[in-house]
Amino acid sequence: MIFQFGIVCLALSLGTDAFFVEEDHPRISKFDLSENVFRYNEDANLNARELISKYGYRGETHKVTTQDGYILELHRITGPNSNPNPENKTAILLMHGLLSSSVDWIISGPKKALAYMLADKGYDVWMGNARGNHYSRSHKRLSVLDKQFWQFSWHEIGVYDLPAMIDYILDNTESQKIFYAAHSQGTTAFFVMCSTMPKYNDKIIAMSALAPVAYVGHMTSPFFQILTRFAPMIEAGMNLLGMYEFQPTEKFMKNLKALICDPEAWSQPICENVMFLVAGFGSDQMNRTLLPAILGHVPAGSSTKQFIHYSQMVKSRKFRQFDHGLIENYRRYGRFTPPDYELFKVTAPVVLHYCVNDWLSSVKDIEILAQQLPNVHSRIKVPHPPFAHLDYLWGKHANELLYEKVLDIMSLFSQK
């Protein structure tokens, strides 16, 4: 009865065909390239390695296999082509957020994107790709068509993906420890890793958390507010229909953007993209010239369970493991409710970068997080009130407002 009610609610709110996924979907979102604001940008169709080469940097692709069989793709920048490759470079791993990829860190171009700025400063830059995104859709045994391939949330990214990447980097460089910087879900996975596998704290020099996400009880994203209300029914419906990869259909997007977007606004091309509907838009930091390139790379893919896991925590206001239901919880955890992540075990130095205009990472939730972490080096507010969640990646002045501070703090740790 509850399940049937859920299906009816979803059909009414999203449209009955919103569940069905198109087999082929272009990387470039559908928008009118003839409009004055939105000009064609070839970077929309270049992959990470092609972008790195285009802008004059030395790039590498590495494959990493996790303990549970996922084959992940790492992208590496060893420096600008104009400079010789210095030895004894300190490595840093950059980790993307939900629905994103390694391209986040390079799409803004030289002097603007964090990965290039790090490379210019002499760091050995590694950029991860979590299981399920464009670059990490392989497995030793499973196909992306298999249900089991998609049975993960960001918990597994923290328990399997990050450790595999960090160990690979340490094994293939002269680094004894590495820096770690991440955006949004990339911070969530880090807190999962260091709380469940504390030995990895000793492999981190310092962690820069850009828009940290752990506690989400004060999240204001309309997407997640809607999802939280219907999460159990949505999950049941997706399981029934075999929808395990998050691939919203045009019908789904049409109904969702009708709830959030002004049909006359210049931002309509953004509203065609689920990434912006989840994380927000409208900041004065939005680079309209860059937008066509960005829309060619997001969303980059995820499992539906990543969204469900966040929605569970919006409701519970706790930072805890996935809620599988009473019986399955007891089988997995030996208790009827999921265990909380033990943040007191995250002993690596953490720098929290936050802003006041963030749909996903609210100031109140960051205050709760800071109280739970035992080794917060500093909390740094972006000194620009309109700055928002996606501006950490693509803001016009993110280099000046944020990245230069990240580099300064890394320099301090390097001198210790």
Please provide a brief summary of the model.
Residues 49-108 form the Partial AB-hydrolase lipase domain. With 416 residues, this protein is an alpha/beta fold.
Describe this entry's structure for a reader:
The chain is an alpha/beta fold and 416 residues long. The protein has 15 helices and nine strands. Strands 1, 2, 3, 4, 5, 6, 7, 8 and 9 form a nine-stranded mixed beta sheet that branches. Strand 1 (57-65) and strand 2 (70-80) form a beta hairpin. The protein is globular, with a radius of gyration of 20 Å. The model is unreliable at 1-37 (pLDDT under 50). The active site is at residues 184, 358, 389. GO terms for molecular function: hydrolase activity, acting on ester bonds. This is Lipase. InterPro entries: AB_hydrolase_fold, AB_hydrolase_lipase, Lipase_euk.
